[in-house]
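Z., the sequence and structure:
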Amino acid sequence: MSSIPEFTLQNGNTIPLLGFGTAEYPFGSSSETMKETFLHAIKLGYRHFDSAAIYQSEQLLGEAMHDALNLGLIKSRDELFITSKLWCSNGHHDRVVPAIQKTLSNLKLEYVDLYLIHIPVSLKTGEIGLSFKKEDILPMDIKSVWEAMENCQKLGLAKSIGVSNFTRKKLETLLSTAKIHPAVNQVEMNPYWQQEQLREFCEEKGIHITAYSPLGGKGTIWGTNWIMECEVLKEIAKAKGRTIAQIVTIANFGRKGVCRQLKNTPQGIGTSQADRAKKTMSTSIPEFTLQNGNAMPLLGFGTAEYPFGSSSETMKETFLHAIKLGYRHFDSAAIYQSEQLLGEAIQDALSLGLVKSRDELFITSKLSCSDGHHDRVLPAMQKTLSNLKLEYVDLYLIHMPVSLKTGEIGISFKKEDILPMDMKSVWEAMENCQKLGLAKSIGVSNFTRKKLETLLSTARIHPAVNQVEMNPYWQQKQLREFCEEKGIHITAYSPLGGKGTIWGTNWIMECEVLKEIANAKGRTIAQISLRWVHEQGVSVVVKSFNKERMKENLDIFDWNLSPDELQKIAGIPQRRGSIASEFISDEGPYKTLSELWDGEI
């Protein structure tokens, strides 16, 4: 069964990108069969359920969850993502907490994953329903109602809070006083109402969009049949052997930062809109939204060739070919000697029209250990930008939690040059790089949980990313759990074992478990390893300068590993490949590998 991908909200909580709507109009009309329907949805693999006080579905959803636990369909409540909403008659400061407590009582839960203001309108306190007098309609005191919503999150009654049916103007009003920004705005969105301006605004503000009525809401008081009767969508569906509903859902998945929920004066669709819909159904690389709202492609192209600089004659051509194939995330570093050639490739790609603007690319680079000093960070960042011929990088990382005496950038250094990193001051300088607009996001690489805790204890801007070795032989489960809890996104390097580097091994490519799965699926071992990494909810950087393998490595998104295959991979004995023994010294900050990796070895 193909698992539903997830999106990480700005506060670090994850939301499944496909949800199951629980509203049946008239509300409560399917109460006799509703619980059975919810249980069947859980069996099929749905994990996000969207409810609301007005839908009259909370109690039956709660019963279905309770039954699902008893039947073993899910192991714990944490496997589900439950959304509910505050109705207008409770849209008053003093009514919000009692309303969520009532919702939790109905659901038989201690918390909901997401609690939304249903409509930016209040009604006089009374029964929850659609029948009310016009004189009962009141303006919402957005500031005071949102303060009460923030209290719901602070009290642990809702893991995340957000809004529904909010326009840009109403969001601006809310954001002007909010202490906790809304994680989600749930709005109508489908090919007939594409919400482009609202989506751009929300992306800029780090607010995730959830689309309701993706199929037009037929059967509701507001619904239409425009979607299901659309000739453009019929044509695409027929050509692809899909239903119209599947075409709409797939098209939405191609949009950055949009989740959608399905339930069992229109904007026109011209030729350009149809072309856009076809484009989103190609094998594009999905993206992940970092905690600060910036989107990052989940597959990146590594630019390190060892010995560093050894492929300089063909490197620019390789990067251009990667862009032609569809790669948009390029991972570089000061030490790789690839920045300058990557910069030239980007300029050529723009001139050739392979990309329309620099914003279509996501460029990562890293601070070398010899520049791991407070006063060296900004000059190092400026040198990187000069090499890349860019005004900013999308992500700038501390390459290793070690400093070296200031000098040449390279991997040849004396043991006496190894110094402990002053994390607080170096991170302050990294934060300045982001504040100055030189890096859209900042992060770290090769940091253990302990080192991240040290950094987080003084950081004003939390690291957006931790790039670490990760593959079936080094699965990093504890580190992944820690980073997910802290809202730090993991990027995996050496997903294929890093063969050809000074730290690399051939464990992955010679692994019998992976060979067996690859043969059974008609895939390469590399594709199996990359797909496994992708299914762990992290991004991955893969390096191959072979044109055929570059293409093969992109083909990992439209298939999945079975539970049995995942179980086999989970049983592979664990051993770290990249141990960085060059940083071990009796006179240095790390005298053993265990000290460097804080026991994570």
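Residues 295-596 form a domain with the TIM Barrel fold (CATH 3.20.20.100). Residues 262-283 have pLDDT under 50 and may be disordered.

Let me know what you think.
H.
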